[in-house]
Amino acid sequence: MIVQRRTFSATETYQWTSRTLSAARTALDEFGFNEIVPAILSSELEPGAFHSFGVLGNRIRPEYIELDGREPERQVQVTGKEAYYLPVSHNFEKQQATEFLDRVYCLAPCVRLLQEGEAASRKHLNTFFQMEIEWKTESMEDVFDTAQALLVRISNILLSVENGPSKLTSISKKHLEAIALGNYPRITFQEALQLVEASPERLSDLTFDEDQSLSLQFDRPFWIYNYPKGVRDAVYHENDQGNYDTYDLMLPFGYGELSTGGIRPKTGEAIIQQSLDNLGEAKASLTMGHAEWKRARKIQTAGFGIGFERLLRFVSGSTTVLDFVQPHDRGPNRTIPGMASV
Hints:
The protein is α+β, with helices and mostly antiparallel strands. The protein is built from nine helices and twelve strands. The strands form three sheets. It has an eight-stranded mixed β-sheet. Strands 2-5 form a two-stranded antiparallel sheet. Strand 10 (about 245-250) and strand 11 (about 255-265) form a beta hairpin. The relative contact order is 0.18. The model has no long low-confidence stretch (mean pLDDT about 95).
């Protein structure tokens, strides 16, 4: 049963956040990753993303008007000097950083307002953070091995008396030990559908219930890979089977998806084609900066983004990401049911 309300104290939230950030940075440093500073605003569209905008003023603050509320998606009207996309991920930015550094990561703030039904999932927030990790490679095997090694190292740091949180519950210890097991199984998307008794030919992603059901069948993290066209909402390398080299890292014990990533498209043309044909973007809405960069630099990378609050939820033994809405956060996460009393 997923708890529908926040249960951690402010002190527990801060302690787990601080220790886990420290462990992640230590592990990434040991594996030769360079921390970069994430961009907060961008003129570049992320194809397929549910974008929000940041509206800027100069000497005059942007003005907003509350509308009559008849349309759920049209509640306010904002007027300002400039508008930029707010990040849903930092997918393109971290790829472009590999022109100068072979292995990079950042703790990236992301904005993606909750979709229908997600407020009850206990895995979704309106604003959240991702550990965005990228490096020069085109090998899925390399990605799987590197991600596993990083997570095993993070887990072992948190399990140590010196570096871990002062109080490990039996549940948090069980979860950390599961990560530390290594040898994460790998299944195709088609095999995942079969394990939840869905049609293996289906072209839609796992539902929340299927995600949870599949996760309960494993005792350690596991990979799902080789997704068909139409399932994902970003651009990836198309393989010889006509599927896409994208993957999810799933947590066991019903916790579900932790991380998503993929091998990046190898050409600028592939980025544009997938944006139009797979993701349904209008040609007029596309921005061409990343496709042009790919054409000019021809740098091949792969990577993934770890949902930081989801990682915290699992390693701490919490049942809801609401426990990791920071006590000082006064943004839209405060409107999620279960946060009102905090």
